[in-house]
Amino acid sequence: MTASKTAHLCATRRAGFSLFEALIVLALFSLLAGLSVGAMRPGQSSLHLRQAAAQLTSDLKRAKLEAATSAAPVTVKAAPNGYAIEALGVSQELPDRLSLSYTTEELIFTLDALASYERFTLTDAKGAAHVDIAPLTGEITLHMP
Question: Counting beta carbons within 10 angstroms of the beta carbon of residue 106, is it exposed (0 to 12), middle (13 to 18) or buried (19 or more)?
């Protein structure tokens, strides 16, 4: 073998990455992926809070509409782990990380508007969302942090 062929053969072998170098790069990518997934976890908690608050608001608006269209009272019964609206067939349980507090255990929507102010508060470790029902108008408003 001549010297030029040997130099060409050595240059061809060194053109790529060694197995060790490829494993190091793969380990670094895995580490970065693991760190990014861990950084996204706190956002899931607020996502559950937002989803539960939006669902509660939607269910309360449906209960108000049902009371207005059927001219029959619609009762919303609250519990620490959720709420139920029998007229709509809704029984909602909250995820373990969330809790629900309220100004009254039983809210009744009628054809007439509510006579008193009502508030449902959903809380988790990072914050709270409030669903307010205004007296007289019965307007339902969601307040997020």
Answer: exposed
